[in-house]
């Protein structure tokens, strides 16, 4: 799927999570080999929050 994630005016469920919860979901999604699109959405939110490190990219 080729698309860019645009946050809606209302926050998504992922955007409502605190930083720790979002990082946990990211790690679980990567471990479970979740859809690359889903992982990219999480990464975009992490990037907005400046939480991406070289370790979790």
Task: Outline the structure in words.
This protein is mainly α. The chain has helices spanning 13-16, 19-31, 36-48. Helix 2 (19-31) runs antiparallel to helix 3 (36-48).
Largest sheet: none
Instruction: Please write the string of helix (H) and strand (E) elements.
Output: HHH
Number of strands: 0
Q: Please count the helical segments.
A: 3
**Radius of gyration, whole Å:** 11 Å
- Low-confidence region ranges: none
The chain-level structural class is mainly alpha
Report a brief summary of the structure.
The chain is mainly α.
Give the topology, please:
Layout: H1 13-16, H2 19-31, H3 36-48
Features:
single chain, 57 residues, mainly alpha, 3 helices
